[in-house]
Design a protein that fits this description.
The chain has 13 helices and 22 strands. By secondary structure, it is an alpha/beta fold. It has three domains: 144 residues, Alpha-D-Glucose-1,6-Bisphosphate, Chain A, domain 3 (3-Layer(aba) Sandwich), CATH 3.40.120; 206 residues, Alpha-D-Glucose-1,6-Bisphosphate, Chain A, domain 3 (3-Layer(aba) Sandwich); 85 residues, 2-Layer Sandwich (TATA-Binding Protein), CATH 3.30.310. The strands form four sheets. Strands 1, 2, 3, 4, 5, 6 and 7 form a seven-stranded mixed β-sheet that branches. Strands 17, 18, 19, 20, 21 and 22 form a six-stranded antiparallel β-sheet that branches.
Length: 450
């Protein structure tokens, strides 16, 4: 009936035609609708990305919701942050976005919300249990369409951002859902904008829609150099993750983007706390302290971080993966369109090039996030064994999310991905040779158990 494996940690994600069909979307709609009705809630905003399967999936999902008595506001084909914005603007009880984010075109999925928070982990499993039990709420819901949300969203951001000078920007929309919106916003703010791949196309004909992978940013990098522009901005398929290349065409990692934003944030908010995930560089944590902030290392995952922000009252957070959460001057959810505009705002305050923004930091050598294949039913056990072995050997281990092992001159990380059958690893040290030594040490232990 439903492949339980598609109910992952943060969302529902699977291959179209195999894991996800129109019938399964109908059942998930009934399951989510029942979940909401059981909480005494019923108003739902819904949107979807530009994948070929999305319109039919949207229709079936809405049909399921309506049969449980939920009232649905359909905002159409759009970006995930605009769906989040609509939950806030229209004051709905929840929301759903049909998207597979940065996954290839054969995938689709659903992100579910309870208010502006994600339905994830155990709560997402509760939706699955409702479907498996087959006992649904019954009712006759209403369906309406809201057609002005894009104008309201773009106006909100344009009024929020103040540039000191025009900035020359190239936007690579990755044929995802941020392409129609970010160039429009930046142009209204007075920037000179060149558009690349900004027409939504769910087959992603130009490159994979993940701006955190260097090869996906190669066209943007070349374009910035050729046009002699100041920055290149990329977004993922549903526009909740940011990518940046500087004026030299060099890609910034997610923690470097976060670091630049953090410095700006701490100028106006001295002493405030900032959350970053376990994959981020030591430079970021040290730099937050140096600039008067309090760094908090936390679990990877947009849903985990949004929940933690709410629990402890933090208004700024981010991840290595390019999710950035700004409650300062904004609404607290991950919105690459807005974060790109904030990044350009920071650029407008200076004539210095982006490549110099972090030039005062200590030189470190690090890997990008890397993956080691490991079956879903084994990956967490492997990480637990590696973590315990390092602890037994008296290493400094942070186990909030996998094992981050800190040495005098570097660190290594191994954690189980919550979304794919892989182990995620990353390494950093003060020299390249030491980085490779740490990599060899950690992976020698992984290989014993994998």
């Amino acid at each position: 009936m439903i492949n339980a494996q598609i109910f992952r940690q943060y969302d529902i994600r699977g291959i179209v035609g195999d894991d996800l069909t129109e019938e399964s979307l109908y059942l998930i709609g009934k399951g989510y609708g029942t979940y909401m009705r059981n909480k005494g809630l019923k108003s739902i905003a819904i949107g979807g990305d530009a994948r070929p399967s999305t319109p039919a999936f949207l229709a079936e999902f809405i049909k399921g919701l309506l049969e449980t008595g939920c009232d649905v506001i359909d905002i159409g084909i759009t970006a995930t942050p605009i769906l989040y914005f609509s939950i806030w603007k229209l004051k709905t009880d929840g929301g759903a976005m049909i998207t597979a984010s940065h996954n290839p075109s054969q995938y689709n999925g659903i992100k579910l919300n309870l208010g502006l928070g994600s339905v994830y982990a155990e709560e997402l499993q509760n939706v699955l249990k409702i479907i498996q039990n087959g006992v649904y709420a019954a009712g006759v819901g209403s369906l309406s369409h809201y057609d002005t949300i894009v104008e309201e969203y773009t106006d909100y951001i344009v009024k929020n951002i103040k540039l000191d000078r025009p900035v020359k920007v190239i936007v690579d929309g990755g044929n995802g859902m941020g392409g129609p919106y970010l160039p429009r916003i930046l142009t209204e703010l007075g920037c000179e904008v060149i558009e690349m791949y900004c027409e939504p196309d769910g087959t992603f004909p130009n490159h994979h829609p993940d701006p955190t992978v260097e090869k996906n940013m190669e066209d943007l990098s070349r374009a910035v150099i050729d046009a002699e522009y100041e920055v290149g901005l990329g977004m993922d398929g549903d526009a909740d993750r940011i990518g940046v290349v500087d004026e030299k065409g060099k890609m910034l990692y997610g923690d470097q983007i976060l670091n630049i934003l953090a410095r700006d944030y701490l100028k106006a908010n001295p002493g405030k706390s900032i959350i970053a995930d376990v994959k981020c560089s030591k430079n970021l944590y040290d730099d937050i302290r140096k600039h008067g902030g309090v760094p908090i290392m936390y679990k990877t995952g947009h849903a985990n971080i949004k929940m933690r922000m709410k629990e402890i009252g933090v208004e700024f957070a981010g991840e290595m993966s390019g999710h950035v959460f700004l409650g300062d001057r904004y609404l607290g959810f991950d919105d690459a369109i807005y974060v790109c505009a904030r990044f350009v705002e920071i650029m407008s305050h200076t004539s210095a090039p982006v490549s110099t923004f972090l030039a005062d930091q200590p030189k470190v050598y690090n890997t990008p996030e890397m993956h080691i294949a490991c079956a879903d039913d084994r990956k967490f056990a492997v990480v637990d064994k590696v973590c315990q072995e390092f602890k037994d050997e008296k290493y400094d281990v942070n186990d909030i999310d996998g094992a981050r092992i800190t040495f005098d001159d570097g660190w290594g990380l191994v954690r189980a991905s919550n979304t794919t059958p892989v182990l995620v690893v990353r390494y950093e040290a003060l020299s390249e040779a030491r980085m490779l030594e740490i990599k060899e040490l950690v992976e020698s232990k992984i290989n014993k158990y994998i």
